[in-house]
Amino acid sequence: MSELLTGFAFFLIIEGLVYALAPRFLVAMARLLPAIPEQQLRIAGLVAVAFGVALVWLIRG
Questions:
Q1: Which of 1, 4, 20, 56 has the most CB atoms within 10 Å of its CB?
Q2: Under 8 Å between Cβ of 15 and 22
Q3: Is residue 7 a contact partner of residue 14, using CB atoms and an 8 Å limit?
Q4: Contacts of 41 (CB under 8 A, 6+ apart)
């Protein structure tokens, strides 16, 4: 359970850094998001999940 909470904490740190260091970039990306087809967003999300799982597997393995 502590590893899950640590992972969540790192997620919050990274998200917070994006908001703190590049708010204009974040707003610009939010404006572009509706123009991206749903299928492309889904594929990008699945690729990110697969990359994250592979990275954890490599680190923990």
A1: 56
A2: no
A3: no
A4: 33
Contact, 40 vs 33, CB < 8 A?
no
- Condensed to tens digits (0 to 9), the pLDDT of residues 4-55 reads 899 899 999 999 999 999 999 999 999 999 999 999 999 999 999 999 999 9
CB-CB contact of 26 with 19 (8 Å): yes
Domain carrying residue 48: 2-60
What gap in Å lies between CA 57 and CA 19, rounded to an integer?
Answer: 29
Paired tokens of 32: 């572009």
Residue 36: phi and psi, rounded to 5, are -85, 130
